[in-house]
Design goal:
single chain, about 250 residues, alpha/beta, Rossmann fold, 6-phosphogluconate dehydrogenase C-terminal fold, 12 helices, globular
Length: about 250
Amino acid sequence: MDTSESHAAKALELELVDEMVTLDEAIEQADVLVLAIPVDQVRLLLPTLLDRITHQMVLDLGSTKSQLIDAVRNHPRRGRYVASHPMWGTEYSGPAAARTDAYINKAVIICNANETDEDALEWTRAMYRKIGMHLLEMEANAHDLHAAYVSHISHITSFALANTVLKKEQQEQAIFELASAGFESTVRLAKSNPAMWLPIFMQNKENVLDVLNEHIDQLIQFRDSIRNEDAEGLKKLMERANDIRRILG
C-alpha cells in the first residue's frame, strides 16, 4: 500500500507489485508487514500495527533504531517486530528508483535481535540473505551512533555543500558546465528527499550533533591552515585523510 496514488500506479505499471491494497486489507491479508516509510511515521504506526496483528511479523527499514524500539519496548507483541536497516539507497525516491540489484553484497543491520521472536528473526535473516545481503547484528544505540558517522553526516555535508554553491555561484550555467565528476558525486546526496532525512536527523539528534561538531572542527583546521599559509599543516590533514584508503580500498 502507498499513500501516494501516483506511486501506487507507477508500482503497478512497473510490475513491482501484484496489487495495491488499503492498510486494513494489508493487515488482514499479509503474513509480513514491511514499513518502508519515514522514521517519524514508523514510530507512530508501529505500535498501532502491533496492536492489530495476530501471527504476523512487522519489520522496518529505517535508518534510526533507538526511538523505534523504545516506542514498542513494553508492547505485548514486541517479539513480532524486527528492527532492520539495509545499508543501501540512492538520492532518488519512488517506484521509478527501484533497482533489481539494489542489495547485492550490501550490509543489513538487525538491532536488538534478542527481543524478537525466533521465527520472525529467522524469516527476516533468510529473506535478506536471499536478496544478496550480509547480516550484522547490533544494539540499537550502537547502530544509531555508527549510522551517524558513516551515513547521516554524509547527507548533511552534501546538503550543506549544495547550499554553499547555490548561494555563492550565481550562474547556474557555470555550475552545469563546470561541475566535475568529483563535485557531482559529493553533492549527489543533496538530491535526497527531505521528508525522509528530516526525521532521521531529528531522531538521531545527539549522535548527529556529535559527528557534525567534529566535522566542523575538521573544516576549521583546513580553513585555518589555508588562511595562515600553513602548507605543511594542510598537507598533514590531507595525508591523514588518505588513511581512509586502508579501510575502504
